[in-house]
Design a protein that fits this description.
By secondary structure, the protein is of the alpha+beta class. About 30% of the residues lie in helices and about 25% in strands. It is globular, with a radius of gyration of 24 Å.
Length: about 525
């Protein structure tokens, strides 16, 4: 017999040997000797009060053994001689599209503009140390996409889009820790993701798929409203039947290409703002009601904040406890910041994007001349302003949090995890009023919600501008573009995902849709 139960364990009791079996036996009113094993299905922390509690969802195996294998089996087939589907981009959407193609007996041919995970590291080092951005190999572009070297958070609210558990199980199959199957807010870590990504690549190649790095798509041909060929930067032209476009939210050249080819795209609402960085100890003390270092049994504390200011949401985004801030620009002449955490989340700082909702229909009147790309041009202008304010390098403009809210230039800045360095600048005046004004009110309100959050010990760093795509590439119920047969817009770049898991699920769906198009 297997029973699922919920139990609560005070933090002081969690180190006791056999505590889960003991609590389970008490709740079920059975002899603990009848329990063969306990499987943790979900674990979360309740830190609302000083007495911190661990919440567990458990599967209790009573008088029967726990199965040794997963319910999920990934049946990859040899597709070396199968029909081809082209996938542009090898981030989460592209990777899972490729894996799903192989499961269903089709050959994925992946075209990735960037480099493999190992070679990417040199280009990331060049950004951090020499402030040189390779437009095809950076924190956004390359094997694994933006998530590979910027965190690997797996939390998603997209529970209706597909089988979330299947996505997690496949990550575990490819080397991720099975802890992601348990944690309420699962996270792999930027130090461990490259190995998982490499293993996915090896699976694709092992079963007959193809992956071509440093292969940027620069053009395509259309006949009778059907996508016929794609051209690469190296001059190669490829005949195609179905193309899954999984290029991510920062592949601006793709949006320009679609616009130039008169392929329908739409402007889309998005969010922009800054990164705020606190000493992790401050966030721990607020969330765990402690002084000094947190209990060693507790992970670095995180937070989630939201407030409405003048009919627009101001909210935390991609919060990274025990993490780093990284330079996420995709070209020289712009400054973009993002956050990441290693698997142990043991850095001295906590950072989070704090962003403002930008309504594409109401907030971009000065950019109407750019049509459907008005949000993209707004992004670009703000990133260029940050670049100038930082000294025309990857040094980022920054202020102390209190100075930002009070509208004062900071005489000095706090220590930071951002390797290219910070430069004191008047971010409060650099940011457009619709963003800066709302952020200042939002930060003041967050200080009231989390006492100690509003402090001169925190830095505000600009700009956080790549939260999501400002462009949507439309598609029908069949997931195919409504005007261009053979094109399947996918993931964050299409405007259909907001993170690793939702992008992966969308990749699988687009693979299934592309395959279905062969049968029509």
């Amino acid at each position: 017999m297997v029973k699922e139960i919920q139990i609560r364990v005070p933090i002081k009791e969690t180190t006791q040997e056999g505590i889960l079996i003991k609590k389970a036996a008490q709740q079920l009113k059975i002899d603990s000797k009848t329990i063969n094993s306990v499987k943790v299905l979900r674990k979360s922390i309740d830190a609302r009060k000083a007495a911190i509690i661990f919440n567990y969802k458990l599967a209790i195996y009573i008088n029967e053994p726990q199965p040794e294998t997963s319910d999920y089996i990934f049946n990859y087939k040899d597709v070396s001689a199968a029909k081809e589907i082209h996938i542009i981009g090898f981030g989460p959407a592209g990777m899972y599209a490729a894996l799903r193609c192989i499961e269903l007996g089709f050959k994925p041919i992946v075209l990735e503009r960037g480099k493999n995970v190992r070679d990417r590291r040199r280009d990331l080092r060049a950004i951090n140390q020499f402030h040189l951005v390779d437009k095809d190999s950076n924190y956004c572009f390359g094997e694994g996409g933006a998530g590979t070297y910027s965190d690997g958070k797996l939390y998603t609210r997209s529970l209706k889009r597909g089988d979330v558990r299947r996505i997690f199980e496949n990550l575990v199959y490819h080397g991720a820790t099975d802890q992601i199957l348990v944690d309420a807010h699962p996270h792999i870590g930027t130090n461990k993701l490259p190995k998982v990504v490499k293993n996915i690549r090896e699976t694709v190649l092992k079963y007959g798929g193809e992956i071509h790095f440093e292969s940027r798509v620069v053009d395509f041909t259309i006949k009778n409203n059907t996508l016929k060929t794609i051209q690469l930067k190296n001059g190669k032209e490829l005949n195609v039947n179905a193309v899954i476009l999984a290029t991510g939210h920062s592949a601006r050249d793709i949006y320009y290409l679609l616009q130039r080819k008169n392929v329908a795209i739409k402007s889309k609402s998005f969010a922009m703002g800054v990164r705020v960085e606190h000493p992790q100890e401050i966030i721990d003390s607020i969330q765990y009601h402690c002084k000094g270092k947190r209990d060693e049994l507790l992970p670095a504390a995180s937070y989630s904040l939201v407030h409405q200011v003048n009919n627009r949401g101001v909210y935390s985004f991609c919060m990274c406890p025990g993490g780093f801030i990284v330079p996420a620009a995709t070209a020289n002449g712009e400054v973009v910041v993002n956050g990441m955490s290693p698997s142990k989340r043991n850095n001295l700082f906590a950072n989070s994007g704090i962003v403002v909702e930008i309504n594409a229909e109401k907030d971009l009147h000065k950019y109407e001349q750019f049509g459907e790309l008005k949000g993209l041009e707004f992004q670009k202008d703000l990133e260029k302003l940050a670049w100038v304010a930082g000294g025309k390098s990857q040094t980022a403009p920054a202020q102390r949090l209190t100075d930002f809210v009070e509208g004062k230039l900071s005489n000095t800045l706090n220590p930071t995890s951002y390797q290219p360095g910070l430069k004191s600048a008047s971010l409060h005046s650099i940011l457009p009023k619709q963003i800066g004004g709302r952020l200042r009110k939002g930060f003041a309100e967050f200080g009231r919600k989390m006492h100690g959050y509003y402090t001169h010990e925190a830095n505000v760093i600009g700009v956080e501008s790549r939260t999501s795509s400002p462009v949507n590439i439309p598609r029908k119920d069949t997931l195919e573009h409504p005007e261009l047969q053979g094109l399947f817009p996918c993931g964050e770049g299409g405007g259909y995902a907001g993170g690793i898991v939702s992008a992966a699920m969308d990749g699988e769906r687009c693979a299934e849709a592309a395959i279905s198009s062969f049968k029509q």
